[in-house]
């Protein structure tokens, strides 16, 4: 990218030089003698001049093409590989920021290690990449390294989770996590009312503590629970993993046996683990069971469990941010200013007998029926 300015200047200089030469040749032709022979020679000279100009324009176009063909270097510091959602997010970026699309992607799986993620970003600065994408493991501790990015002149785009202690990034692309938590809560109220359930005693398996997804979903659901006087018996982290979800749910089944009728898992993988634990403990769940199981992410496997009547409702968190991130990068590349926040479109999913009308702060919500076609189209 940094070589393009030089290439463009050289191309411009070449055009000026060639056109100057053409003008000189044109001046000489006007001094040729009149008559048929002179006119023919003048015509030949003009033809040569036109050919020179055409050749010059062609060479400039070829140089411009070569300049535009230079790869844009992207550094991507990903959270890890803890879930189906994360895998889809990574694949989205790798597909969009490919060499075939004009990019060179340096990808680092930070394996849920905040220190490793900061080091990855500093490594990108040393590599002098053109842009840095960060999906922050936690929402704080970022101001120093983002200042370093700013001083190096490297724009940063934050995706998925948010950064709370710095605004030194060009744009954020992701989900409204609190809205997801509110949606789960308001849906549960409408579903409980439709099924004559007057008392809610919920257990929450939260995501990685301090992650904005965990904070937003917990805060949103708790806001609704407080509004309706529900009891949240406990909330423990499953770190967004299947093993974590199973481990927490096994503990819950022992500590709260017979005392809960709702389990909220903050992603599908935690829900899969919780299902195994409840199966082993003899606890029934889903639309036909004793426990309402709520999940987030709505990955393909999650929607399959909705269709299998195991997860009662699943609230989408869209992982396919890369095309939108590319739009941000192209805006920056062309000297524009992107929107500071871009929210991904998302849907709420259930089977027909769990689809109910509900609203969030007076805004009606739409639910999507889970069908084979919907599952096939999901990430």
From TrEMBL:
<dbReference type="InterPro" id="IPR025997">
    <property type="entry name" value="SBP_2_dom"/>
</dbReference>
<protein>
    <submittedName>
        <fullName>Simple sugar transport system substrate-binding protein</fullName>
    </submittedName>
</protein>
<dbReference type="InterPro" id="IPR028082">
    <property type="entry name" value="Peripla_BP_I"/>
</dbReference>
<feature type="region of interest" description="Disordered">
    <location>
        <begin position="24"/>
        <end position="49"/>
    </location>
</feature>
<dbReference type="GO" id="GO:0030246">
    <property type="term" value="F:carbohydrate binding"/>
</dbReference>
<feature type="signal peptide">
    <location>
        <begin position="1"/>
        <end position="20"/>
    </location>
</feature>
<dbReference type="GO" id="GO:0030313">
    <property type="term" value="C:cell envelope"/>
</dbReference>
<keyword id="KW-0813">Transport</keyword>
<comment type="similarity">
    <text>Belongs to the bacterial solute-binding protein 2 family.</text>
</comment>
<keyword id="KW-0762">Sugar transport</keyword>
<feature type="domain" description="Periplasmic binding protein">
    <location>
        <begin position="74"/>
        <end position="313"/>
    </location>
</feature>
<keyword id="KW-0732">Signal</keyword>
<dbReference type="Pfam" id="PF13407">
    <property type="entry name" value="Peripla_BP_4"/>
</dbReference>
């Amino acid at each position: 990218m940094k070589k393009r300015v030089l290439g463009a200047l050289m191309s411009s200089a070449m055009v000026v030089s060639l056109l100057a030469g053409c003008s000189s040749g044109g001046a000489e032709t006007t001094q040729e003698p009149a008559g048929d022979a002179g006119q023919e020679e003048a015509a030949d000279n003009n033809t040569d001049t036109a050919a020179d100009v055409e050749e010059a324009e062609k060479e400039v176009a070829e140089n411009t093409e070569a300049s535009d063909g230079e790869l844009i270097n992207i550094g991507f510091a990903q959270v890890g590989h803890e879930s189906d959602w994360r895998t889809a997010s990574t694949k989205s970026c790798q597909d969009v920021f490919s060499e075939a699309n004009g990019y060179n992607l340096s990808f680092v799986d930070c394996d849920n290690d905040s220190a490793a993620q900061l080091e990855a970003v500093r490594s990108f600065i040393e590599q002098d990449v053109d842009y840095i994408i960060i999906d922050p493991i936690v929402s704080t501790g970022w101001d120093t390294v983002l200042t370093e990015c700013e001083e190096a002149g490297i724009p940063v785009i934050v995706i998925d989770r948010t950064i709370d202690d710095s605004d030194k990034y060009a744009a954020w692309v992701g989900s409204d996590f609190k809205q997801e938590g509110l949606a789960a809560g308001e849906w549960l109220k409408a579903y409980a009312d439709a099924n004559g359930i007057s008392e809610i005693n919920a257990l929450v398996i939260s995501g990685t503590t301090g992650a904005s997804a965990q904070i937003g979903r917990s805060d949103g659901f708790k806001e609704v629970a407080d509004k309706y006087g529900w009891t949240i018996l406990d909330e423990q982290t499953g770190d967004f993993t299947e093993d974590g979800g199973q481990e927490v749910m096994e503990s819950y089944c022992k500590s709260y046996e017979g005392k809960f009728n709702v389990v909220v898992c903050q992603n599908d993988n935690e829900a899969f683990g919780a299902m195994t634990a409840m199966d082993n403990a003899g606890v029934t769940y889903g639309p036909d069971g004793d426990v309402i199981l709520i999940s987030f992410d709505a990955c393909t496997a999650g929607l399959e469990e909705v269709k299998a009547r195991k997860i009662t409702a699943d609230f989408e968190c869209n992982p396919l941010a890369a095309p939108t991130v590319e739009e941000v990068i192209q805006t920056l590349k062309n000297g524009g200013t992107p929107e500071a926040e871009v929210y991904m479109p998302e849907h709420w999913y259930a089977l027909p007998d769990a689809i109910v009308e509900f609203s969030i702060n007076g805004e009606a919500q739409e639910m999507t029926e889970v069908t084979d076609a919907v599952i096939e189209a999901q990430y």
